[in-house]
Amino acid sequence: MSSTRRAETFPANTPAASQIFTTVLSHGPLTRLEVARRAGLSPAAVTKAVRPLIEAGYLVEDADEPARPALGRPANPVRVDGGRALFIGVKVTGDEIIGVLTDLCCRIRVARHAPLPDRDPKGVLASVAELTGELLTAAGDLGVPVLGLGIAVSGDVDRGAGVVRYSPFLEWREVPLAELAAATTGLPVTVDNDVRALTVAEQWFGAGVGLSDFAVVTVGAGIGCGLVVHGRVVAGAQGVAGEIGHVTVDPAGPPCHCGNRGCVEAIAGDAAIVRRIRETTGVEVTDTAAAVELAHQGDTGAREAYARAGEAIGRGIATVANLLGPERVIISGEGLAAHDLFAEQIREAFTAAAFGSAAQCDLQTRPLPFEEWARGAAATAIQSFIRADQQQ
Amino acid sequence: MSSTRRAETFPANTPAASQIFTTVLSHGPLTRLEVARRAGLSPAAVTKAVRPLIEAGYLVEDADEPARPALGRPANPVRVDGGRALFIGVKVTGDEIIGVLTDLCCRIRVARHAPLPDRDPKGVLASVAELTGELLTAAGDLGVPVLGLGIAVSGDVDRGAGVVRYSPFLEWREVPLAELAAATTGLPVTVDNDVRALTVAEQWFGAGVGLSDFAVVTVGAGIGCGLVVHGRVVAGAQGVAGEIGHVTVDPAGPPCHCGNRGCVEAIAGDAAIVRRIRETTGVEVTDTAAAVELAHQGDTGAREAYARAGEAIGRGIATVANLLGPERVIISGEGLAAHDLFAEQIREAFTAAAFGSAAQCDLQTRPLPFEEWARGAAATAIQSFIRADQQQ
DNA sequence: ACTCTTAATTTCCGCCGTCAATAAAAGAAG
DNA sequence: CTTCTTTTATTGACGGCGGAAATTAAGAGT
């Protein structure tokens, strides 16, 4: 496993081919004509681009003909053969790593997690290698090649360079993770920020499909935000963007570890909610689960803490909507376990603080199973595989 | 003038040609090799694209050879011949219209303004036609054709459709201004939101040249913001974006006409500052000029009002920086007359509220002469002329 | 005069994507 | 059963864009 095996490459050199494939990938089975229409190309171009993709096994003609609605030659839709290739996505948190094996359509086949005994690059790399090894074995049993590995890390990540610039959780600076992981696993590696990875998954396989402007807001220990503008994920000039967690909601609010007061995260982050409940109720809740339970029991102080959190989140989302005018905001995150406790407040605060037509922005809530972060990492690997060099 | 004259079109059909021209336009005289490098094209492609542009008179070989630094065949830089074509930009405010005649390099040749007696579409159209007529006469004296008219209006504008969706100041809804103005002036017309127009001017001819991610913040009666992400001006899904003026800075702050409290505009807008000074000092200041003077005289209350305003603006800018990670923020606007009164607070509040590497964002201040808004409108006309159909 | 160096141009070529015509695959009509 | 209609897919010719490499251009130094 120490040698980099000859990586299989995707047979789509031209921008049109890669765009056509992406269209089919995101929009399920489509006839060639429909693909041409959506991609703004001629039918001839689609036919020509599709052939090599079918020959290589990445696309298949959909055998089952679901609807035979109309006159004329029957349509012959094509779809991506998810089983053609597998990808591995790994999310590294402060104390564990989560890995998934997905197919080309980013459907999870196997999910694993393991504790993270050691946070320094060497230790993390060993854990990643072990987990990847397990998943590779599982892939081998399926007889399908694994064509890429995506790693998601919170913090400041330069995806293009494959370098973790700064990760507070891991206490890393300038770690060339892609290079290191490629050397140990022999796979092509993509490294990206975790929220951006999740955003990529939504853009290609989730609620962001077909939208050129949307945002993903994650609610949990921290409050994160991934942005898609002009059809591309926003990375920011310094590699950091979407810091909604430290948008000030109330300058008189509780102090935040960032040094300010009343950041969204200082009100609606897990720790902030728990602290607030302790302070107002005197009950010694220690973690989020206990906080949620207390609120569900009807405790006024706990409910109020969640209401405040919801309001802060709603205001944060309204800020995003005011500034960018996205078509949709997808709210997700572990914090959604408490969804019923603040959904209403989020919506209310958003509506109140959204200015003008920004209020027309569609708010969607999506559950976030714990493997979802790792799935996002896999999505970045799929993306890198499909458009090896070219952008968007 | 009632018939639409045969519009001259720009001889650059291919994306490469238009990109090459834009590069030369923004980056002054460049040798063909340098253009090729910057545009990511081969020198051959540049030579081929440049020739018809020179023949049509849009580009010229720079006669004066400024530096002859090196060995080898002397470089033969090309630049845009600003005098080849003229454009008109018009900014419509609530009570006057401002018009400029610019050359192809967006340098102002003539500036005029006129009161706006009537705000309904018909009246505005008449005023625009009259002002345009004057500028066309001036252009005729120069013997240079006018190839486009840009109109900037505050509010919700659909540039592609040429329709003003909603303008609170003018009390317009769904006015097809581009079509109407084209019919009366006979010129190709571009209509855009005023802040976005200003942003286009900065992107092509100002402090945003060469940057793919930056923001323009305007300080004046209102607080506005134009955003460029991935090299393109953000328009938002509903045609509205950059509403920094109604980002909440302090939920306990003064009420805003939008229905919330403590919006940036409710603290740092002209009217808000004047009101604040009246309330805290008791002095009956009536307008911004008086407020500035009072502050410059050292009045504590007035100075404090400006300090608060600066803090609010700084926080607003930090929010933009946190969310988008722009490379630069350009602060401009009529409010900069009071620049010395709050520049420091803007910077301090920004630094305090910017999270992590967002603080590395470059803050620049630019004066905003009153014709600048109209110049922005002219910039949109130039942009439309250069890339008639294709995007970016 | 010759060489060295860098800029610009020319020529040729590959290749992508469109156009327009054609084939394919049904059901409908007679 | 044949022919027509309708819609999808394919084919082949064509045009044009942009790149690679060779060539020309225009000096400076020796």
Automatic annotation (TrEMBL), chains A, B:
A Pfam match is HTH_24
Q: Which protein family is it in? A: Belongs to the ROK (NagC/XylR) family.
Task: Fetch the PANTHER family from UniProt.
Answer: BIFUNCTIONAL UDP-N-ACETYLGLUCOSAMINE 2-EPIMERASE_N-ACETYLMANNOSAMINE KINASE, ROK (REPRESSOR, ORF, KINASE) FAMILY
Q: Report what the protein is called.
A: ROK family protein
Q: What organism is listed for this UniProt entry?
A: Streptomyces muensis
